Amino acid sequence: MIAELNGKVAERREESLVILADGTGIGLEVMVPDRTLTDAGEGIRLFTSLHIATDGPLLTGFESPEELRVFKALLNVNGVGPRMAVRVLSTHPASRIYEALDQEDPKPFQAVSGIGARTANRIILELRGKLVPEDKAPVEAEDDESTREVLEALLGLGYTRTEATIALNQTVGESMPVEARIAAALRDLGSRGRPA
After folding, report:
1. Considering only Cβ atoms within 10 Å of each terminal Cβ, which end of the chain, N or C, has fewer?
2. Does residue 117 share a domain with residue 72?
């Protein structure tokens, strides 16, 4: 599998770049988000994913591992293929996608060509609470009884799973009673402008 591609842009097309891979003399066409489209002659490094479809192979590329992670998460949603997932990342940066999921807002997804209300809501339903910024993802090693108690308490107070997980991560690794961890998480939520 082609996981990463370094080279020079040989040609810019409407939704893709033809890249001459360093030291090979081989030109590969890579579908990229609009913000990644760059002029011929520019050096580029992409994190890639290869897909085999009925109409042939499709190589997609992204400027960061984070974009690639969001792209792969979108592919897990029924009805979202690689071309549509790239269009989502053409329309919005990863940070806006996280925000839309957290706020359960389908409008940013509906702004993408080819995505209607049903697909937008399916994306939110399937990815909300699962696709969060990497530095905010829950630490699996901390999945102990006290962590579960804190999470359940925050959910019981009306916070979303994403909000609760992000706040909970601020207390990971700290030795304190459950009540103190809940208080620390609530302080973190309050500092983000959410009512505690």
Report:
1. N
2. yes
Residue 40 lies in a domain: yes
Residue 156, domain extent: 138-191
Is there a domain that residue 196 lies in? no
Grouping H, G, I as helix, E, B as strand and the rest as coil, residue 191 is helix
pLDDT in tens, 146-177: 777 888 888 888 877 777 777 776 666 556 78
Cα gap 105→93, rounded to integer Å? 15
The verdict on 82 and 50 lying in the same domain is no
Least confident of 43-47, 81-85, 94-98, 144-148: 144-148
DSSP state for residue 77 in the 8-state scheme:
S
Residue at a domain's end among 62, 77, 106: 62
Question: Which residues make Cβ contacts (< 8 Å) with residue 5, sequence separation at least 6?
Answer: 19, 21, 28, 30, 44, 45, 46, 48, 61
Q: pLDDT averaged over the chain?
A: 85
| pTM metric for this prediction | 0.68
Within-domain flag for 100: yes
How many whole angstroms separate alpha carbon 29 and alpha carbon 32? 10
pLDDT tens for each residue of 9-66:
999 999 999 999 988 889 999 999 999 999 999 999 999 999 987 888 999 999 999 9
Domain count, the chain: 3
